[in-house]
């Protein structure tokens, strides 16, 4: 059962990432697809936590405690689904922000790929691209844009 849910969650998450990476920024369908996927993954997370929270013997007080907690396959899967959902939501923000600042596809997609594979590494790469874009583009006027 856990292996099946693991495979299903990964496949569903991939659909959200493909939508973010491939659908052009001017088409409004990628965001609802990715948000819908994140909602489904979040529902699976809630079901897993509700089903297995009391089955774990660990805690969040130490690395050894977290290892004991994730020794239960249901809680390990919940942790993985948590990553899938939140990383995807970061990807949605990256896409929204890329659209807002006019970040080109060839810069956006590697950041999305890195966020999908390595979470914070991709987010930091996106922030770097965003920073450069905001510093070099003069037609963006927001509170977040640097002042001249």
Question: How would you describe this structure to a colleague?
Answer:
- The protein has 148 residues and is an all-alpha fold.
- It has a domain at 2-101.
- It has 6 helices and no strands.
- It has helices at residues 2-22, 30-52, 63-69, 73-101, 105-118, 120-136.
- Helix 1 packs antiparallel against helix 2 (30-52) and helix 1 packs antiparallel against helix 5 (105-118).
- It is elongated and about 55 Å long.
- The model has no long low-confidence stretch (mean pLDDT 90).
Quick structural overview:
The protein is an all-alpha fold. The chain has helices at 2-22, 30-52, 63-69, 73-101, 105-118, 120-136. The model has no long low-confidence stretch (mean pLDDT 90).
Topology:
Elements: H1 2-22, H2 30-52, H3 63-69, H4 73-101, H5 105-118, H6 120-136
Helix pairs in contact: 1-2, 1-4, 1-5, 2-4, 4-5, 4-6, 5-6
């Amino acid at each position: 059962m856990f292996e099946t849910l693991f495979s299903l969650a990964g496949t569903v998450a991939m659909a959200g990432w493909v939508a973010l990476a491939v659908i052009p920024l001017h088409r409004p369908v990628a965001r609802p697809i990715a948000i819908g996927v994140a909602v489904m993954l979040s529902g699976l997370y809630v079901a897993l936590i509700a089903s297995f929270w009391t089955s774990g013997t660990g805690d969040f007080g130490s690395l050894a405690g977290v290892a004991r907690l994730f020794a239960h396959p249901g809680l390990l899967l919940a942790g993985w689904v948590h990553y899938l959902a939140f990383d995807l939501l970061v990807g949605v923000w990256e896409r929204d922000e890329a659209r807002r600042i006019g970040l080109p596809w060839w810069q956006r997609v590697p950041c999305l790929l890195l966020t999908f594979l390595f979470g914070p590494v991709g987010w930091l790469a996106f922030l770097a691209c965003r920073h450069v874009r905001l510093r070099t583009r003069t037609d963006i006027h927001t509170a977040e844009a640097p002042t001249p």
